[in-house]
Design a protein that fits this description.
ABC transporter transmembrane region fold; Rossmann fold
Amino acid sequence: MDERRSGIESLSVQGEIGSMARRTWNVIKGVWTEAGGGRSATGKCEAGSSAANAPGAVPGAARLSDRKRAAATIGRVLQLAQPEKKILALALASMLITTPMTLIMPAAVGQLLDVSVSADAVMSPLTVAGMLLGVFAVQGVFMSARDGLLAIAGERIAARLRTRTYAAILRQDMTFFDHSRTGELVNRLSSDVAVVQKALTNNVTSALRALGMALGGTGMMIHTCPKLAFVSLLVLPLGGALAVFIGRFLKRKQREVQDMLAATAQRAEECLTHMRLVRAFARERDEVHEYERLMLESREVSISIGIASALLGSVIHVAANVALAGVLGYGGTLVLSGEITVGRLTSFLLYSIYVGFNFGTLSTVYSDLMKAAGAAEKLFYLMDKKPDLPAYDSHAQLRRLENYQASIEFVDVGFAYPTRPDVTILNGLSVYVAPGQVLGLVGTSGSGKSTLMQLLTLLYQPTRGRVLLDGVDIQSLDPSWLRSEIGVVQQEAALFGCSIADNIRYGKPLASDAEVCLFLYIHVRRAFLLL
């Protein structure tokens, strides 16, 4: 970095406090908008007002559509775990065993206190403690099994999702790659898949475990003391509603973060790929500054996500503590009046803590699921996108020519690249190449020499005219078969990260070792003769 102050460096304490307050206020306004209470720039209510179409306004229909899309996305995310249903079912069964064991603890503590203050010849404190040790030992075995099964399922799901996404990317035609950036696509395979993997394993099971503990704890609270249970559960609806609105805000912001991270990865990929050019023009400092700018943009949105998550946790925490304070005050009066014992009050307090903690876990899981929905939308877009040309794994019955003579004809062909539709590369080109004829194309750079080969191999479709092979329009042929029949030598050499032999076999995967050695011999001999 140069001598100027980096934007990523920390600010002063006063600056950080002011920045935090400003960001928190922006997050609160965003959550308020998600709740449907936002106002447009004119200060009028969005509902029933022309300001609903003002910049920044969120119409009710759009919010409803976004909710349906989020629900559909989460449904598809959960469907990704379908092949691992047996493993996940075993993990769920282990959880169903461990959850009741955990719920025994508060009741046992209350029983232990009551036994300690009363003379009971059958149940002593040591007996209760010994029983708890046995329960905890069995619980530990099942918890280990559950976590191990979840790890296996998670890695399988991630590998399958990455493979499907990669296959979907390779299925697209060249127009898609002209419009997409390599770094962005790589980021989808890494960052987005990791977010979805976490949602499908850790978050889903954490949600089920927390839900079981919350419902079980609530049931035990009602069983222990219905009056205290009513007081304790009064604040939960408000906390749940706020959690839903904050979750929607998180989902929207997570989509923005994933897009920004993709742009950052793309910039880094371009710079590292063209490092010689960057160094030749002494642009290292400028590249660092540009990368820093992109990181600052993504950092701001990521901070808003962190603040929203903190607000969500705080809401649940405050709600749980308010309920706990109410239980302590009202429960103390019930103990003094003799309606419940100290042990039952202690058990109820522990169940209250269990319920509050697990509702807090549910809020965290909900926010993570919303983040996963934002990341999954990009992955599902890639999986659902249909290429304009038949893909390599297309099941369509496409034609293959038998015993063809290999006559090639371009008939009144016109073409412009999809990324530059206003720049005509070919205009009314007609040419015929007889079988066995050797033809050389000569022209200035950009005149369309390489374009002809790309049209012949069906990398692109002509905007006008036809390309014929033995009088047959090549668009009716199987693209994979057609390309396998054409030998191509690229202008620029490309090497994959494998052995020399594997690189040579790339155009002919079934080539024998003898054929590879013959190719190397001819190539080296020709290079030696040209010296």
